[in-house]
Amino acid sequence: MQSLHLDADNPAAPLVVRDAPPASIGPADVRVRVHAVSLNRRDLMIRAGTYPVPLTPGVVPVSDGAGEVIEVGRAVTRFAVGDRVTSTYFPQWTEGRLSLAQAMQQTGCSLPGWLASEVVVDEGSVLAMPDHLGFDEAATLPCAALTAWNGLTGGRPVRAGSTVLTLGAGSIAVFAIQFAKALGARVIATTSGDDKAARLKSLGADEVVDYRQRADWDREVLRLTDGRGADHVIEAVGPATLERSLRCAAWDADIGLMGVFGTDDARLDPRAFSGRLLTLRRIAVGSRSDFEAMNRLIAAHRLRPVIDRVFPIDQAEAAYRHLADGAHLGKVVIRVSG
Q1: Which of 41, 317, 9, 305 is nearest to 149 (CA)?
Q2: What digits encode the pLDDT tens for the residues 54-63?
Q3: Helix H or strand E encompassing 38
Q4: Both 118 and 7 in a single domain?
Q5: pTM (global) more than 0.90
Q6: Based on the domain organization, do 66 and 166 belong to the same domain?
Q7: What is the pLDDT of residue 327?
Q8: By CB distance 3.0 to 4.6 Å, which of 87, 125, 197, 331 could disulfide with 65?
Q9: CA-CA distances (angstroms) from residue 39 to 12, 120, 316, 321?
Q10: Are residues 12 and 74 in the same domain?
């Protein structure tokens, strides 16, 4: 079995390739041949030493993966050899609310990740892929897609006819556009540049506001909603945009805060809360139950994740650099096998 590891002393150093005999399998475990993984901004933060969860030295990185079950333990009931499965970000979070103990157990950080030819995991920490997706596509779902889904459905669920605002053209925003349209919502998206605007419209965005041309994009959102504002905001940027998100939110809006990125000196004017009732939720991906619900929508509407580029495993470092460059639209995938 071959696996890639973070350098134990310096996670920012080049990934370390290791060959080892296959790991033993326990009664409730499944062995999965990994076909593809996808990267998230969190993977860059881990290597930069800025991620808040303690890192296990030398861990196999990457939380998001997909593959085929090639062996099952004697007590396994959920899967059989040949089943196609995806990873989960929080393997111990099955349903309900996320506890601190569950939050500290994260694939590809405190726990071994999926950037390997095989993984051995508890059967409860994987779930079946939507049948119409390939491995590259399914590998994009565990983090960004589920975060977007939780942002739309984890509080007050999006309903047909409601207005959803997405910020930027990152993976969370892209998934949110696809899901919101499948749920019957109107989508207003912000981005920069004509090319990205055209891509977001092709994915279903009803209106796109270029925040470089309109620094007061919150006012434009209000204009597009006849002064009412957005019922749901997928706030995947954070402090740099949160105040404007608040100012163009509708009465009793639901704001899902996923990102904590942006300038260190960002300040929030408390008057942005004045005159409106709203719910601000900090989103931490989602549970396995949430993942299963999301997959049902993906299967019913035959949605396909947007992939920017696929790298072979021997170009894993190039994949990390491509993600860090920030010019992508869609997920960056590393194909491990197949």
Answers
A1: 305
A2: 999 999 999 9
A3: strand 29-38
A4: yes
A5: yes
A6: no
A7: 86
A8: 87
A9: 15, 20, 10, 11
A10: yes
The DSSP annotation for 184-219 comes to: T-EEEEEESSHHHHHHHHHTT-SEEEETTT-TTHHH
Is 108 part of any domain?
A: yes
Alpha carbon distances (Å) from 43 to 62, 77, 106, 119: 6, 32, 12, 18
Residue 228 burial (CB count, 10 A): 15
Flag whether 290 is in a domain. Answer: no
Q: Would you say 268 and 255 are in contact if contact means Cβ atoms under 8 Å apart?
A: no
Packed helices 194-202 and 171-182: angle between N→C axes, nearest 10 degrees: 30
The answer to whether 278 and 247 are in contact (CB under 8 A) is no
Same domain for 128 and 154, yes or no, is: no
Cα gap 71→48, rounded to integer Å: 35
Phi, psi of 4 (to 5 degrees): -105, 140
Residue 17: which CATH number? 3.90.180.10
Q: Does the residue 293 lie in any domain? A: no
Instruction: Show the CA angle centred on residue 291, arms to residues 168 and 123, nearest 5°.
Output: 135
Whether residues 76 and 24 fall in one domain = yes
Angle at 70 between CA 64 and CA 75, to 5 degrees: 95
Number of domains within the chain:
2
Range of the domain at 320: 2-140+305-335
Determine, yes or no, domain membership for 176: yes
- 246 shares its domain with 314: no
Residue 275 φ then ψ, to 5°:
75, 15
Residue that wins the pLDDT comparison between 39 and 238: 39
In contact, 123 and 77? CB cutoff 8 Å: yes
CATH code: domain of residue 265: 3.40.50.720
Q: Which residues pair with 18 in a beta bridge?
A: 3
The string of DSSP letters for 263-306 reads: -TT----GGGGTT--EEEEE-----HHHHHHHHHHHHHHT----
Q: How many CB atoms lie within 10 A of CB 229?
A: 23
**Is residue 276 domain-shared with residue 328, that is, in the same domain?**
no
pLDDT digits (tens, 9 = 90+) for 186-245: 999 999 999 999 999 999 999 999 999 999 999 999 999 999 999 999 998 877 889 999
Task: Name the burial class of residue 322, with classes exposed (0-12), middle (13-18) and buried (19+) by CB atoms within 10 angstroms of its CB.
Answer: middle
What integer pLDDT is reported at residue 271 of this predicted model? Answer: 78
